[in-house]
């Protein structure tokens, strides 16, 4: 492949609930894994503060450094453990272990070593090992030789827990609980009866948690029971209590920070708090929306959070009230609607929670909102046939949304409903306008709006397997009580009773193409007259689209048997055709390009071409190993000018695609080094400065003032400061609200920054600046002075005795303190004096 | 095994009465159980929980409290206001004494065993001194407002805790005044109940008082300050009983929902001495109220309205995996309630206050149509009844006392039964279908009450074991009787004989007492013939084989001995099986053998049964060893004789009929089996507390 090939990158939407989230020590931040990254969210504002990038594979575990709660360890399938400063998003160190790491654990007792889960020999035999981390100043280091702690454990981190004091580690798998005591270096194993009889049928362990203060282990089981084990240091005298509320398996357990209560969750989507670990005193937080996968408790004890199966993290206060929701891309089991782009918000729209349509922001990697389409309570019960949202389409620049939902019992009749939603500017959301029950007699296979000018009547076409396509238009539905408009069926077309498989409007909306199995029919959209038909006898037409812009005279069709055809609408003849098993075909709305993804033996291949030319512009083989289900072009806000000829097609829009395993991928023209630069730059910049946003603000301000002073000294320069140009203002606007200093500080600063510097610097200001400059000079000189001094001191201990050494140390300390003081003096406190 | 026609009888609608109190004696490892009808049973926990003694009930004596004192002395107190001491040797009531405080609700013996406390309806706590022959009233404590429902001594014997309604009082023994009064919260899950009844208290040596109450709470109180330390809400209904282990490291409570909760004192962390009480395992072995619990060193014992006595071993305390390591549920008495007249095919059922006489149905069919009878030859076939079973007679006793024992003669024309104070003999005359009953009057003065009654095979002699340890022989004549002889008890002992066996030829009488030891008397010469060597475990069943006069003895540890009476020694077969040992499955069986019979035509066969199996021991076949399957089902007919012979061993076991209360051979080819399905018993009990069951 040529050098200009675009890289396939995962573009967010990764699972946030893969592992337990971790709270920072002060509960202000919530850290969670997200694909190859670690994300730092603010618990107060739900905003993503930092994205810790650096791992080259899925991050499988994060834990705070027990010796420094401002640092975070993370482990990944790429075999490395990385240490981060999560507040500033800086990678501090990387330790290479060499095995695929499945989970990470830390505790305060094990100094300089962490615990990871690896599998060495057989694919399903996992071991918990302790990995010593060497103390080296280098950024990259080889981790020490792993020492085995427990063998034959479950790969899930939920199945391993460390005792509160770090005296023991408990691991569960299948029907046994193993406890390893670090002091005794012995393992105790407790087995539950797993006999076939009904009573013990689902005794399997699912998760484990350890009491932070007492010797008590809580285990969750498949039958919904929670067992509290005590006295397990004696293999005979151990005892356990049962708590039973869950009817389905217990997904996760957590003790509160003080251990006074136990939290449990499962498929019921109810968080249960067992106060004093007693059966009768339990509290519930119900209706959490989806299966609780993980529960994490803040070390400060004021917050806890639940990670859910629908890629959501709910931050919950101690009084069991949800206070923040961090929602990622919901991964439904089947994305029936495909990928769409909301023309208004440029958000990606697809199936979300069952019966919902989710609006997902690609830029900020978070869900914007959920639109409840089905508007029925979802009952989480296996074997129940649910109403499925199968089709959706946006029309008229996002003013209308059409959705189709269906439900079919095995033998029963098909329940079909089409809903049309109008965008309401007041509420900034979609409101149900028309509900059409049974729009067709069989499944709706395609749905498209006529992209037309504002003056035209909004028109929608639905194609169905019952052999008809229907045209729906917006008509006046007013009566004596109100003015209203609704959708009515305007025209029903059919072609030889073939099943309609696809439909598509031309760019200007003048022509409608409807494919009936193997035949493509072209209809005039004004009169609904059949203009012409194309038939290639090459299998049912699966994809159909018109060319755009200069290529609007071409119609493209891809068939099931693997033929891609291009018809010329002017000549009504086949322009070209090629053998290509197209699984996804998407036209770029901003250019003539059409992207087609075909399945081949090595995975999926991407072809980008213009309908006018049978030769592809750009080919990339095996973009991913699995099948690509859906793809979409998302227009860029600002067109990018890519130098490479081959990547011209990415200038105006970006191509996103969804694979069978629900990962959302895209093409990036940047090289990985380029992508990483921001972090490393930051690293350089922040090595010298304590990087609090507050400091940034003041530091910049001072700098600018210095510049201004320079400018003033140069001569008269009258310039009205624009708001964009003032860094104070931009900082104010761009810094997340929760990290800003209080408004009292900012107010004066803000006012100050708006003051015009037309007059010559006042008498007060000049000396101050001069002093500052002086100071700066002094600083530098002192720095130079300090170096030899230090060298001297380093030389001293060699010859001097112990007393001298201590003295020297003291001296050094006092020097350090002095330096510190000087540094403090350097900080600009002028803003305090501002009247 | 042979083929039998089986009468499967299910019309014995016996319902055991509910258990009210249990008291565990640590010294002798015995358990006293009192039932709601006033019966008191003594179980020997060392002898596989065999019910070795029982004291018949009495309508007016509703036992509310039961306790052991001074080692082997058993006291009970009830709502008639009397304290009763039992004579465990003579199986009789030693004396009863009115406490003069109205109905007695609770009783506790001091840790030293020298004093007895009773809590009465009028709110008084009375202290009695236990003297060697009797108890003596010592003094009253400060009277409380309402009845004293529970009492517990501090292990040092200086203080007591008394549970009343809504509060717990702590008394000082010396002054007899209340030191503290601890009020119990009436609130139950936010709802204020009218009263909170303290069903049980336990005083621990560190001064903690544990109380259980009707609001479902288990509460820990500090008796020094009179303050509440901790509350465990364990049930939605009453918690009715509590028992603490001797080490005070665990206790058990029973609730009205049928659940038993175990609490243990566990250390908070492994390296600190701080300990806390933790509710550990719940056990749901009961369907109804658990009225009482006991804590033996190795097991939790509970009993309640659903009539089961459940012994749940604590696995961590059981050293080796033996008989004690399994859960035991004792429902049926370990004595015979049914006797059978083989000649007339009659069954006599004994209830607490009446006797039922039934004639078995009969069939003419030998074919394979279904009905009520079974022919094991064509396995599982049911034969139609040509004549239904007949309820011939119901004999009610007068007076409040329960029937101790009863017997119908093999000829079917005599019925003998006894209560605690009277012995009754009835003569039955059959005239075609009519039945007439004659009372035989003028019983001899020595026949006051009987522990066991037995007729000789030819129905001419009646053997009666009285509760004074003597055996009486009566000759039965047409409508009258003659006292022949009395075997007096061995000099110095007053132990009564509980089991009797008569040889079919009428020459030998074997009798066994509560402690091991079987005496064989010669009826002809009217003297003691020999004594079978003593064995550690009590005898559960006795029988003498026809012709050979071998005495077969079953013990509670599931051992079986065969003793030749003429030779005065164990038989060869018995020595052989003792040498080889019984199959381990045989020894692990749950219930004792309650009946032994013989086949008249096959002298090598011994028929015996317990509650869950019927067994024919064929002495001619090789004994099973631990590798062979003990419970082998009937081998399929298509298998060759060789395989059949190879797998065959002496023990032929059928588990088809259970729970089996009685099984005997009527004639060569007919068996009668009396079953009492547990569901039928539960159906006759009052409905249990309704509990919401998930998914219903």
Automatic annotation (TrEMBL), chain A:
In the record for this protein, the WD repeats are positioned at 52-94
Q: Where is the composition biased (Acidic residues)?
A: 765-787
Q: Tell where it localizes.
A: Nucleus, Nucleolus
For the region Disordered, give the residue spans. 760-812
What GO terms fall under cellular component here?
A: small-subunit processome
Q: Per the UniProt entry, what is one GO biological process?
A: positive regulation of transcription by RNA polymerase I
Q: Which GO terms describe its molecular function?
A: RNA binding
- The chain positions of domain WD repeat-containing protein 75 second beta-propeller read 339-662
- Pfam families, from UniProt? Beta-prop_WDR75_1st, Beta-prop_WDR75_2nd
Q: Does the keyword Cytoplasm apply?
A: no
- The main place the protein resides is nucleus
InterPro entries found in the cross-reference section: Beta-prop_WDR75_2nd, Quinoprotein_ADH-like_sf, WD40/YVTN_repeat-like_dom_sf, WD40_repeat_dom_sf, WD40_rpt, WDR75
Residues in coiled coil: none
Keywords for this protein: Nucleus, Repeat, Ribosome biogenesis, rRNA processing, Transcription, WD repeat
Name it. Answer: WD repeat domain 75
- Native organism is Pipistrellus kuhlii
